[in-house]
Write a structure and sequence with these properties.
Rossmann fold, alpha/beta, 308 residues, two-stranded antiparallel sheet, 12 helices
Length: 308
């Protein structure tokens, strides 16, 4: 049994167990929201206050879904996948906010995770990106294991997508019990905007150029393969131009928002609106929804909205 099959089997067992609950318990469990949007009432400028806001929003959004124990079980090995692609400090919003990432790690450990792994197949040199983004020190302080990608651990796997039939995949990303996708919401010069699906490129190898030729299809291919357990989108700071690398603070806008979703398509759809886009304007969201990978009409999920 492969790791993906095992993950699907465990989800099936959980669903079967849920179906056998008493009616009132089942109703309460099924009533848990699939999407939560946490927004800060104020937009602090002090670095310590911004860090506190990021932690508060992340915990609030995940708690609104029923808490991390809904997604992570005791003894699980969890991979948390942020964007650590670039040698940029957090204020440039090229990488995921380190306090968002660290809070996800903390919540996984509080839920009983045996180990939390954090990695990314970086574009800039990994040592600089992991350190200067602030993610590696924040993760290690939280008790997680942040490590550089080992190219020997890529394996050709059957993605079975429309475009990607077989592709080089980082083995640990499918060997773990749970996979949590933690991207930053930002501009991208080729795709217009990069959200959760685009972030999955950080756990594959091969030619990124080939994927960029048809992102509307290759990104849903990756989503259908990895099927993240949870999506947590960092919108504390948003890079609005000159992405994905950024480097100019004038391009960074404060949105003071974190989105958490059990439905990756709905999460991306909600995040697109922070850019002033309709989800129907983002090709990969339209295609992923058409394939039945999630809901493009995120409002139909009655998202929990929090002002914190």
């Amino acid at each position: 049994m492969t790791a993906l099959d095992r993950r699907a089997f465990m989800k099936g067992c959980a669903a079967a167990s849920l179906a056998g609950l008493l009616p009132r318990q089942a109703t309460a469990a099924l009533a848990l929201p699939a999407l939560a949007i946490a927004h800060a009432k104020t937009s602090p400028t002090d670095p310590a206050a911004i860090a506190d806001e990021a932690r508060r929003l992340t915990r609030g959004a995940i708690d609104a879904l029923g808490g991390m124990r809904r997604f992570v079980s005791r003894g699980d090995v969890v991979m948390v996948k942020p964007n650590i692609g670039w040698d940029r400090a957090a204020e440039f919003a090229a990488d995921t906010n380190p306090d968002v990432v660290a809070t996800v790690v903390t919540l996984c450990l509080e839920a009983g995770a045996k180990k939390v792994l954090v990695t990314d197949n970086t574009c800039h040199p990994a040592q600089r990106a992991f350190t200067n983004s602030g993610i590696q020190p924040a993760v290690e302080k939280a008790g997680g294991d942040a490590f550089y990608v080992d190219t020997r651990k890529f394996r050709s796997m059957p993605v079975k997508g429309k475009i990607l039939t077989d592709w080089e995949v980082y083995a640990q990303a499918v060997e773990v019990d749970k996979f949590i996708n933690v991207p930053i919401i930002k501009h991208h010069g080729l795709s217009g905007v990069t959200l959760g699906m685009k972030n999955l490129m950080g756990v594959i190898g091969g030619s990124r150029g080939r994927l960029h030729q048809d992102l509307a299809n290759t990104l849903p291919d990756l989503l259908g393969f990895f099927k993240p357990t949870l999506l947590v989108l960092d919108g504390v700071r948003v890079l609005t131009a000159n992405g994905p690398t950024g480097g100019n603070l004038a391009d960074v806008k404060r949105k003071d928002t974190v989105i958490a979703s059990a439905d990756s398509v709905a999460g991306d759809a909600a995040a697109a609106t922070l850019f002033g886009l309709k989800p129907q304007q983002v090709g990969c969201i339209v295609e992923a929804a058409a394939r039945g990978l999630g809901k493009i009409d995120f409002e139909s999920l009655t998202p929990r909205r929090l002002e914190l």
